[in-house]
């Protein structure tokens, strides 16, 4: 009973807000009539989310990822606005806005009633709008001339569709009036915003898979580890804002009870970094997919969100190895965001704002994504099911449901219990005691590794080594196994158990022959062989490290 009371006390402190669930009746689906796969994705989503048939629209568009401004206007933007109006899914009317600089109120003709909030663009709908030199609009004095451009992401340009009759300028970004919103009621066409996302990726099968993984994580929760890759920039650096968002995102995940790794070295995570069981990834600033994400196997958990900040991270979604968004989706991420043209840093999503709303406030993916966009009519595309809401259920309820079904995911709920408690002041001893006395630990590599970490932090190296060795016997994932071997080897070396460390590193190479950090292990083995007076092995590893 003592351990149950600890669990319930912690879980009660982590209840998610109970918001109304968004349903398929709030969605309008858009597909490209010139691509059969596009309609197939639309039908798949409509069935999964119960989108009414009358809210599925097909338009004949170019099959290229890029479309001209004229094509966007004539084959998508205006036809969609007309259909929503004629089908009575929304209604336009005059609205009196606040006083302008001259002190006079303004009248706008915009959406005043709406039955839908989301627009889902299906695989085959163009991704971006090409620059149009024939548009000669000028912005207000003081706007950076570099921003006076009219190319844009299709998603971002459609997001202000409720304002399409107000004469919005196309020459540059439009300030997002719902940026930072914490009230989901503001994220509505009646407030000038349409929540646009796309089911897309290198192929139609991947696009459909985004739906399946979102539904699985809604049912079971999003579990796993969080990885953040900052650059360690000083606050005086002009790019510090990106680091600040990523660092704040790491703090949010840690406070919410996720095992969180924050790297602040200038380089991105190397391929040798054992990135296991990924629930959340945020990093920057490589041009193309790199490090762990360029490996054949990436351990994304069902429902995972992955985001890499780069000016052209979504230059194309059709490639599995170019840029970032396409490869991340191909490797198993469930949702992401990216930029199709140069946005400049301040025009990219505020990832900390996104995570706070999605994870702490229980927003849907679409709500959180657009509440985190500083600007509209700009360069961001949002990829994934916008109704996806993995944090909408209280943690206590999810935990109980997983345990009733004897789901292996329940180990992650136990881990979050521990990390939540530690984040809010519980002692290392108390949490170690908790893990020692629950049955789940005896069958879980995840919980046994955590117990080992706690022992290490308590200053009990021998107990930590014992637990890392036990974790290796309790079915770790491939990447977790590599991390355990690396950690165990380091701890054994610290305790001058050189032969045991030598055996551990050799076992790592045997278990993971494709490990991209082999050279690192060879160097460790060379140093240990010298200490252990193994001349044949010294010669072997000297040859391997040349």
Structure description:
The protein is α/β, with parallel strands linked by helices. The protein has a four-stranded parallel beta sheet with strand order 2-1-6-10, sandwiched between helices. Strands 12-11-13-14 form a four-stranded parallel beta sheet, with helices on both faces. α2 links the parallel β1 and β2. The longest helix has 18 residues. The termini are far apart. The N terminus is likely disordered.
Cα end-to-end separation? 59 Å
The unreliable regions are 1-18
Classify the beta-strand content into a percent band: 5-15%
What is the global morphology? elongated
The level of helicity is 25-40%
Instruction: Give the overall average pLDDT.
Output: 93
Side by side, the strands of the main sheet go 2-1-6-10
Question: What is the domain total for the residues?
Answer: 2
DSSP strand count? 17
- Structure classification: alpha/beta
Query: What is the alpha-carbon Rg in Å?
Result: 26 Å
Query: What is the count of DSSP helices, taking H or I runs of 4+ residues?
Result: 18
SSE arrangement:
Elements: H1 2-12, E1 27-32, H2 36-49, E2 56-59, E3 66-67, H3 69-86, E4 90-97, E5 106-114, E6 118-122, E7 128-129, E8 152-153, H4 154-158, E9 174-175, E10 195-199, H5 204-220, E11 225-229, H6 240-255, E12 259-263, E13 278-283, E14 300-308, H7 325-331, E15 336-339, H8 351-360, H9 365-371, E16 375-376, E17 380-383, H10 395-404, H11 410-423, H12 428-436, H13 445-457, H14 461-472, H15 478-494, H16 498-511, H17 518-531, H18 535-544
Parallel strand pairs: 1-2, 1-6, 3-7, 6-10, 11-12, 11-13, 13-14
Antiparallel strand pairs: 4-5, 7-8, 9-16, 15-17
